[in-house]
Amino acid sequence: MGTVGLDWQFSGVGNFSGRGGSDLLLRNSNTGGLEVYDIANNQITNAAFLGAVGLDWQFSGVGNFSGVAGETDLLLRNVNTGGLEVYNINNNQLTGAAFIGTVGLDWQFAGVAAVRGAGTSDLVLRNVTTGVFEAYNIANNQIIGAASLGKVGLEWQVGGFAADPAPAATAQLVQAMAAFGGGGAADGFNVAALGADASQQAFLTQPHA
Asked: What is the number of other CB atoms lying within 10 angstroms of the CB of residue 193?
């Protein structure tokens, strides 16, 4: 399909054009610039520059966080504060942004999957100290709920997520493991109040035992 400079790094695949295809989002590691490549019939059909975001904001997944049908949005996280920002993308343009809250830096990105139910885009983080997984339900650019998925020993790393296509099924965490470990809630879980530009709904995020 062509060649792109090595300073452009992968930042997800989704329907950024609004045409129902699978488009490629890249980010420049030097400038923070975001570039969408529309792909159809195994060819790049168009490219669009979305703008630049500071390098202290790192990729934390893509999904339909806005609730707009067919839309794929970008989630970034601040490496210094743990803040989460959603960028809505449609027609190869940034159409909106929302700050959805802050999570302690001991919780790291594990994936985005339909954990809550079919068709949802939920953020999964993992505590680097305890191995606990926490799912954050996102809809309408807000955190609407959270739940612990359990704890796995830190020697086990995330292999990915798999979704059962059956309508009533939810996503399952793919993990090569003997069994989930026991244990209670993670210590030191940090939850901050939402920013002024965000919904006033607080995180529902104290991890469960």
From this structure: 11
